[in-house]
């Protein structure tokens, strides 16, 4: 990176989560890593950041780059403590936020007569501050009603009188013609200096509800996020930091503070991004190009499907029901199954694991911190999967009796033994995660036989093999230090800039649309933005995608289209690709119908540099620490080998059933499969008889 | 059989009700003698039920016979054997 | 109302060891996943705007049991379908000669006298055979945009016989061994106005069943047939147990309520509906005896109320369990033949939505008598739906036939917990909004206004959800059908809560988008009333006005309205009923309502007894006095809670 000092040795990743602020650092030359964790300091996040950095024992002046993810924005949204927002909408359409898509939330709320759409209960922009502006752009981008500039000024006066901090401007059809929004924005900037103003320019695509939500949420969190970042930059500078601060964005990469501050809402949720970035990196580097990923933490598991080592992307993201944004975002699903998920009997009388979680306080019963309800972790202890003395590098001895006692409170009413319940809870949790993975993969036309399952988060490896068996996937991949995989992913994230346009035209060779020209134009924009952030032009790789559907439909489908000039031959090929996709995904294709391309999307990525491979060398000694009783598939294996991962030689075969334990994770290997660790320190479990080769 | 249960005139009565025909029986569940037989739509479809009116215990659940006229309408092809095409 | 089942229930239902319970739970959920995948495929690949935008579609899985065909999993789009699906399956499978069934056979049926909701909602059924016998039937249904008949869009308001409605299919073989049956397809496609859209929808409907069979067989392959059967029944029994536990909470008794459909579109006679909900122990009978005879017009229903009423019951006794046969098992319906809920062929039955909505309102009212505080206000009770269609003449689109529906959403009733939901279609739906930006490209429609209608939610301690104002213009000539009810009386509240605003419609013959007054809903100078309760000044007056005074139509069930370019139609769909005494609504909430324009100041003063010191402040002392006055007047029979409706309209 042009603005990154290559002489400074350290790269640091900082992830401010809801409870903890984690930092991880890597020395660019030696590969040494350090990490530290402090409690998040709500209200002044930068204090926690500085404290965590201090805990690394690295002079801030030696840090070349800091990659930063935070929850300032999402916290503000979920707790409704963002800025006061005024919305300027096309007259007659100022209630889009309350309408949502007018439907009800599927699940236990569906038939509940007391249910309210979240925005109606807790608005982001109150109705009294939503203004219908006299203006209209038509379906073809032409002006139908001129912008009433006097009215805009009058509204500005009311906004001023009400002391509102932030304004969102989103008009109908503005994705075709932004002139009205831009003029209104200009007037407001004159009238309301110091007020934050945002328009559809942050992502000018179709779908008026989703676009309005995006602009409104950006107005809601923009001031908070930018203020926080100003303070952080100041605090870092004061503490001697002179390197580059990168912000994580939901499109799976990072950007400079200056660039990303144009659309702070795209930093809203950084949590899953590091995991996806790291997974894509691994897919490229290790040659496992098709990977289903599962990142299991304490409360939930994030899942994604990586095809051909490409970042999986989508264009909508539901913050809450009825508040769906449209934006370039990594395609990650989430299910409420985590290590701390509570095993319980629900109101219908059936056994469930999660989504309620014991968190880390009090945490699972076996932590001995006062938790009395059984969790997935407690089940794993009883099954012998988690060896009590080997947990968390020995820092916390798990109390098996407390785990048993907690499980008994649920086992007894169900007439089961504690072991049977532990079995069942484990299987249910794996089933839930498998279901979530199916919904982002098979249900989108992917053939799981072509994929391996990548597991991380400290809890991922303890269920991964079972999940793989549920899915019919024959290869499980467990990286080094899976508990830190997301953080490392964050560290090594590429610069990414995404942009899109909605041409809404037919995909054909009749010359109506210059597809190559359109993509090239977007690529130039993206390249320009990357350039200002220090990327060299020759380092930039473009990812192209189209959103397509048959004429007459409204649900478009995202298809990566890869590089290569879009000439007539390519167009015909793409048409075929869309038909095939429909056949696989929906069970039919309609070859006689025109295909509409609603949106085209370009992402440019540029590497920030390289870090040394994170490799451990196998220590000396017998990798089998001991043999222990482990219960898998309802059968207790009295003397299953327990391996220490750090002592496992490269290439040594570990047949299941077995446990492979490291400081902060345990990998379960079931019978009928064999695990081996390669020179890069990656563990792979492959079903015996399958070659484990995917893509 | 045939078309006589396909077309009906609109009733002349302003309000329509279902008669529950009393049946001489005692409910085995609660001992009540308030037992009646009448046409219902249960979870599967049209049925004639014999139920205790006090506790709703079912003494019988029967597929309607021809003369139950329940539902009143019936396809002309009722009882015909089928083909590959229906 | 939720209740916790004895966990022994799960264990007993599981019948076997603990591993088995987990297996059953996994299968149960696996079946729901298959239904979900079917529905997602259907919704995302359909062509009719009804399905893809509005979500008027559902997928279900039925299994052969000793009782008949029972639904073991479903995934709603439109709520009502999950309740009616089982009967549709049973009527058809009862009649079909299974001896001739083969793999890949798909049956089309849309006959209301065989359980279908109305002809527009076409159903296709795909039996899944195992060892030579159909063991499962997969069902997909969606509302197609046009199915022939004299009135485009299918709401044949004003006709008296089914012969004048849409194509009606008794069980008809649509695919034989996965190959389209040409005769059936030709008959369908050659008799509809938008064959491309209907063909697209049929493909999507079938495609989703192809996907469903694939997934179901994978599930069976993984867990084996016997276990899948047991898991399916486990799911049904769990839901049944939850419903029965909720039903047990209601005191035994007979609870009667009466409501009305305004008129039938042919005469101006209203159609009375009576429901007696009888509860004994853990089961319910819904007896419609006393209901008016079937109307002349198309607002009666044939069979679907047998099960659709169960939705209203579920809201109250068991909102959270998955819907399957277990939801239906504890409830029996008594449908008087020849009544409006059991109309006899060949009467017209294409408008099911008003009775459908009214039945759910009736359940709320009947159960309200048993529930005390847990009674809920009724929802708007009408879809207030516009059916639109025509031939496009915009440059680049000339000659394209198009059809569309417009659902602006009403309000749901207030409850003990709080205000009602604003912007939601009737309980029988769950309809989504269209993407306006797409609608405007594909058809010559421009939605110029879709906003909250002030003063439309019923007054109460908790306010009914507000309804919507919806104004639409067309760039080329457009034929419109309006299907609405609750034009004479707004929907009722409960426990002293007031009625929501009734349904209103106007034609604006000279709509000028550039005129600032054109979107002022209270400015009636350029608007010609189509239907509603008005006073002699042309002002909406639900209390004390006269239905049809000065209006073009004597009903909101009208077809054949023609909108020329430059004209607009505006409808106001009223909100839900209020809950509790409006004189007890906290003053700060009333102030918020007015500042947010959910209520106007003048209506707030009238209905809530508040006294404003100025436009943004309420005089609390004066309010207290005023409220005491109104309460006394109410006790003396001199004051009632006014129906929701603004007071400031401009007619001159």
UniProtKB/TrEMBL annotation, chain B:
It comes from the Bacteria. This is Uncharacterized protein.
Automatic annotation (TrEMBL), chain C:
It holds the Pfam family Hydantoinase_B. One of its GO terms (biological process) is glutathione metabolic process. Signal peptide: none annotated. InterPro entries: Hydantoinase_B, Oxoprolinase-like. One of its GO terms (cellular component) is cytosol. GO terms for molecular function: 5-oxoprolinase (ATP-hydrolyzing) activity. Residues 22-582 form the Hydantoinase B/oxoprolinase domain. This is Hydantoinase B/oxoprolinase. The lineage of its organism: Bacteria, Bacillati, Actinomycetota, Actinomycetes, Pseudonocardiales.
């Amino acid at each position: 990176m042009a603005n990154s000092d290559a002489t400074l040795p350290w790269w640091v990743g900082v992830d401010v989560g809801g409870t903890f602020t984690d930092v991880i650092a890597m020395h660019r030359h030696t590969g040494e890593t350090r990490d530290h964790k402090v409690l998040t300091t709500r209200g002044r996040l930068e204090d926690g950041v500085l404290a965590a950095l201090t805990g690394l024992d690295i002079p801030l002046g030696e840090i070349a780059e800091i990659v930063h993810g935070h929850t300032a924005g999402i916290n503000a949204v979920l707790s409704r403590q963002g800025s006061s927002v005024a919305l300027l909408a096309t007259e007659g359409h100022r209630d889009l936020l309350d309408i949502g898509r007018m439907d009800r939330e599927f699940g236990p709320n569906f038939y509940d007569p007391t249910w309210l759409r979240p925005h109606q209960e807790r608005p982001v922009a109150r109705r009294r501050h939503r203004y219908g502006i006299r203006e209209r752009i038509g379906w073809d981008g032409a002006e139908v009603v001129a912008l009433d500039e006097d009215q805009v000024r009058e509204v500005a006066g009311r906004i001023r009188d009400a002391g509102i901090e932030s304004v969102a401007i989103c008009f109908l059809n503005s994705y075709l013609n932004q002139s009205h929004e831009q003029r209104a924005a200009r007037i407001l900037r004159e009238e309301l200096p110091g007020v934050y103003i945002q328009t559809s320019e942050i992502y000018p695509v179709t779908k008026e509800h989703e676009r309005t939500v995006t602009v409104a949420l950006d107005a809601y969190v923009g001031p908070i996020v930018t203020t926080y970042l100003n303070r952080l930059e100041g605090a870092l500078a004061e503490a001697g930091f002179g390197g580059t601060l990168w912000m994580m964005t939901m499109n799976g990469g990072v950007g400079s503070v200056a660039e990303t501050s144009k659309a702070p809402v795209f930093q809203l949720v950084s949590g899953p991004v590091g995991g996806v970035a790291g997974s894509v990196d691994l897919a490229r580097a290790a040659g496992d190009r098709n990977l289903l990923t599962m990142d299991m933490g304490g409360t939930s598991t994030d899942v994604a499907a990586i095809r051909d080592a490409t970042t999986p992307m989508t264009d909508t993201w539901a913050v809450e029901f009825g508040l769906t944004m449209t934006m370039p975002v990594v395609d990650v699903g989430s299910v409420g199954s985590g290590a701390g998920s509570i095993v319980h009997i629900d109101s219908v009388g059936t056994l469930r694991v999660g989504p309620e979680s014991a968190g880390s306080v009090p945490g699972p019963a076996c932590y001995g911190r006062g938790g009395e309800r059984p969790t997935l972790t407690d089940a794993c202890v009883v099954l012998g999967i988690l060896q009590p003395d080997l947990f968390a590098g020995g820092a916390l001895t798990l109390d098996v009796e407390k785990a048993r006692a907690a499980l008994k409170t649920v086992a007894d009413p169900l007439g089961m033994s504690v072991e049977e319940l532990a079995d069942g809870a484990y299987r249910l949790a794996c089933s839930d995660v498998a279901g979530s993975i199916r919904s982002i993969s098979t249900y989108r036309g992917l053939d799981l036989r072509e994929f391996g399952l990548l597991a991380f988060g400290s809890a991922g490896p303890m269920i991964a093999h079972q999940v793989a068996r549920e899915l019919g996937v024959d290869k499980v991949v467990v990286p080094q230090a899976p508990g830190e995989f997301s953080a490392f992913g964050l560290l090594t994230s590429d610069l990414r800039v995404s942009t899109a346009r909605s041409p809404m035209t037919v995909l054909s060779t009749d010359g109506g649309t210059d597809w190559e020209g359109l993509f090239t134009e977007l690529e130039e924009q993206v390249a320009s933005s990357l350039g200002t952030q220090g990327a060299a032009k020759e380092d930039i790789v473009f990812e192209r995608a189209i959103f397509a559907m048959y004429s007459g439909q409204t649900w478009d489908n995202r298809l990566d289209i890869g590089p290569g000039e879009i000439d007539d031959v390519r167009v015909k090929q793409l048409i075929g690709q869309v038909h095939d996709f429909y056949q696989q995904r929906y069970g039919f294709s309609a070859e006689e119908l025109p295909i509409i391309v609603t949106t085209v999307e370009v992402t440019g990525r540029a590497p920030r540099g390289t870090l040394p491979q994170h490799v451990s060398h196998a220590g000396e000694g017998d990798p089998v620490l001991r043999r222990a009783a482990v219960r898998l598939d309802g059968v207790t294996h009295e003397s299953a080998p327990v391996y220490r991962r750090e002592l496992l030689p490269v290439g040594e075969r570990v047949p299941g059933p077995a446990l492979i334990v490291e400081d902060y994770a345990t990998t379960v290997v079931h019978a009928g499969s064999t695990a081996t660790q390669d020179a890069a320190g990656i563990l792979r479990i492959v079903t015996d008889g399958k070659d484990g080769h995917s893509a | 059989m045939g078309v006589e249960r396909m077309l009906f005139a609109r009733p002349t009565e302003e309000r329509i009700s279902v008669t529950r025909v009393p049946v001489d029986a005692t409910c085995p569940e609660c001992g009540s003698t308030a037992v009646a037989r009448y046409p219902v739509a249960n979870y599967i479809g049209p049925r004639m039920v014999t139920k205790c009116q006090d506790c709703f215990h079912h003494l019988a659940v029967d597929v309607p016979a021809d003369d139950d006229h329940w539902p009143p309408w019936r396809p002309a092809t009722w009882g015909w054997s089928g083909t590959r095409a229906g | 109302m939720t209740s916790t089942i004895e966990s022994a229930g799960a264990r007993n239902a599981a019948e076997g060891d603990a591993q088995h319970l987990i297996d059953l739970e996994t299968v149960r959920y696996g079946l729901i996943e298959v239904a979900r995948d079917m529905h997602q495929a259907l919704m995302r690949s359909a062509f009719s705007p009804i399905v893809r935008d509005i979500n008027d579609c559902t997928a279900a899985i039925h299994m052969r049991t000793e009782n008949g065909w029972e639904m073991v999993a479903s995934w709603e789009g439109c709520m009502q379908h999950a309740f009616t699906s089982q009967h549709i399956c049973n009527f058809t499978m009862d009649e079909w000669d299974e001896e001739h069934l083969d793999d890949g056979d798909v049956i089309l049926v849309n006959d209301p006298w065989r359980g279908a909701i109305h002809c527009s909602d076409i159903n296709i059924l795909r039996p899944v055979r195992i060892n030579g016998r159909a063991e499962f039937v997969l069902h997909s249904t969606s509302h197609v945009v046009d199915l022939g008949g004299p009135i485009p869009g299918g709401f044949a308001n004003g006709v008296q016989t089914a012969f004048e409605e849409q194509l009606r299919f008794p069980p008809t073989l649509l695919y034989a061994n996965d190959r389209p049956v040409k005769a059936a397809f030709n008959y369908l496609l050659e008799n509809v106005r938008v064959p491309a859209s209907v063909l697209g929808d049929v493909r999507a409907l079938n495609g989703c069943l192809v996907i469903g069979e694939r997934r179901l067989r994978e599930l069976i392959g993984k867990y084996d047939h016997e276990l899948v059967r047991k898991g399916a029944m486990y799911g049904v029994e769990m839901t049944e147990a939850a419903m029965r536990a909720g039903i047990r909470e209601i005191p035994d008794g007979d609870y009667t309520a009466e409501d009305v459909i305004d008129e039938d579109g042919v005469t101006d006679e209203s159609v009375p509906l009576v429901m007696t909900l009888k509860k004994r122990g853990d089961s319910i009978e819904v007896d419609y005896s006393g209901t008016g005879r079937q109307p002349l017009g198309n607002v009666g229903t044939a069979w679907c109320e047998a099960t659709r009423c169960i939705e209203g019951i579920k809201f109250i006794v068991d909102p959270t369990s998955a819907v399957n046969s277990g939801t239906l098992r504890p409830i029996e319906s008594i449908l008087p033949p020849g009544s409006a809920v059991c109309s006899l062929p060949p009467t017209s039955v294409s408008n099911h939505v008003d009775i459908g909505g009214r039945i759910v309102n009736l359940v709320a009212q009947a159960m309200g008598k048993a529930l005390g505080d847990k009674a809920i206000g009724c929802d708007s009770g009408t879809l207030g739906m516009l059916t639109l269609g025509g031939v496009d003449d915009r440059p680049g689109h000339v000659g394209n036939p198009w059809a569309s529906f417009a659902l602006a959403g009403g309000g749901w009733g207030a409850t003990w917990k709080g205000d009602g939901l604003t912007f939601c279609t009737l309980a029988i739906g769950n309809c989504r909004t269209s993407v306006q930006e797409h609608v405007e490209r594909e058809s010559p429609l421009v939605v110029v206004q879709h906003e909250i209608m002030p003063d439309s939610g019923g007054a109460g301690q908790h306010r009914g959800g507000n309804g919507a104002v919806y104004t639409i213009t067309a760039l080329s000539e457009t034929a419109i059908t309006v299907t609405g009810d609750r034009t004479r009386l707004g929907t009722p509240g409960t426990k002293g809560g007031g009625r929501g605003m009734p349904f209103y419609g106007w034609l604006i013959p000279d709509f000028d988008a550039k005129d600032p007054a054109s979107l002022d809903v209270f400015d009636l100078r350029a608007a010609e009333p189509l239907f509603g309760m008005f006073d002699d000044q042309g002002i909406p007056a639900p209390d004390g006005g006269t239905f049809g005074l000065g209006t073009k139509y004597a009903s909101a069930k009208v077809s054949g309205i023609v909108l020329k370019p430059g004209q607009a139609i505006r409808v106001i769909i009223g909100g839900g009923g209020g809950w509790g005494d409006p004189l007890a609504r906290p003053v700060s909430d009333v102030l918020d309502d007015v500042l947010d324009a959910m209520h106007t100041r003048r209506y707030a003063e009238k209905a809530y007894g508040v006294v404003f010191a100025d436009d943004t402040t309420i005089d609390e002392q004066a309010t207290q006095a005023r409220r005491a006055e109104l309460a006394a007047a109410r006790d003396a029979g001199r004051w009632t809670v006014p129906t929701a409706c603004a007071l400031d309209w401009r007619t001159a």
